[in-house]
Write a structure and sequence with these properties.
Helices cover 45% and strands 11% of the residues. The chain contains 10 helices and 6 strands, in the order αβαβαβααβαββαααα.
Length: 268
């Protein structure tokens, strides 16, 4: 809840800047057609909660109508903070749906020491199912520019190709599109904006420390932070590179021509 005499969080410079960047990304990648029903996945972290506030602000003043609902995946971990998230959503008057699994029991049954990939897949599958049940054509996720850059580095170094998190992609198995309105937004701006909100303490995972110490994503997030300190305008330069693919100067035979003949000029 906003404290008395505190600055209205939606009027801060950082939040207004995020709204502008999100609005630009939504327009650039045609994320939200008129009449869309959105299901916004919120985890309880600063990224997804900031996204939720941004979408409600854009919903209030958008030139095209769309509907917004919210969902969260409850993994059943102790101290996850599901009740705090429910309470916060009720205070904001968000229409919040809940899905979940008893992950502690599943992990004990499977005997898995590093369950994060499985948990992520199960979570995404349940969110897809809820989106279809709610007749929502868009699942909205809170990944931002730093996430996209880290994903690019992971894909390149793991031999998965020149790829990253798409801003507007069709789900592989269901008729739902996944959109990421914060794709232009650096994490530092989200941190700045989130400081003005009184977010609940929730979304805790018992494997968080393990991920921070040995996970690929955490490693590349730290690396991008170091690169940003060394290189001025690092995030904007990376964004520009991700938007400009020079296929003739890569090694994918599908995009290369070995014809020595000069190109035929149009209207020749």
């Amino acid at each position: 809840m906003q404290k008395k005499n505190a600055v209205d969080p939606v009027r801060t410079r950082a939040f207004r800047r995020i709204c502008r960047l999100a609005g630009q990304a939504i327009a650039d990648f045609r994320m939200i057609p008129a009449g869309s029903r959105l299901l916004v996945g919120i985890s309880g972290g600063k990224d997804s909660l900031t996204l939720a506030h941004v979408l409600m602000e854009l919903h209030r003043r958008a030139p095209v109508p769309f509907e917004v609902e919210f969902a969260f995946f409850n993994p059943g971990f102790p101290d996850f903070g599901a009740e705090e998230l429910r309470r916060y959503a009720a205070e904001q008057q968000w229409l919040l749906h809940e899905t979940g699994l008893n992950m502690p029991s599943i992990l004990a049954e499977k005997g898995m020491a590093t369950p994060c990939v499985m948990c992520a897949r199960l979570r995404r599958g349940l969110l897809y199912k809820m989106a279809m049940e709610r007749k929502c054509s868009r699942l909205v996720l809170g990944q931002h520019l730093d996430d996209a850059i880290a994903s690019f580095f992971i894909s390149v170094t793991r031999g998965q190709g020149l790829t990253t998190m798409g801003p507007n992609v069709r789900a592989k198995s269901v008729p739902v599109r996944v959109i990421r309105p914060l794709i232009y937004v650096p994490e530092s701006l989200i941190v700045e904006a989130a400081a003005a909100f009184s977010y609940p303490v929730c979304g805790n995972c018992p494997f968080r420390q393990q991920l921070e110490e040995s996970g690929d994503r955490a490693y590349f997030r730290r690396l991008t932070g170091e690169l940003a300190q060394r290189m001025p305008h690092f995030h904007q330069q990376m964004l520009h590179s991700l938007q400009r693919v020079e296929t003739d100067y890569l090694l994918d035979h599908r995009f290369l021509s070995f014809d020595d003949r000069p190109a035929v000029e149009e209207n020749a």
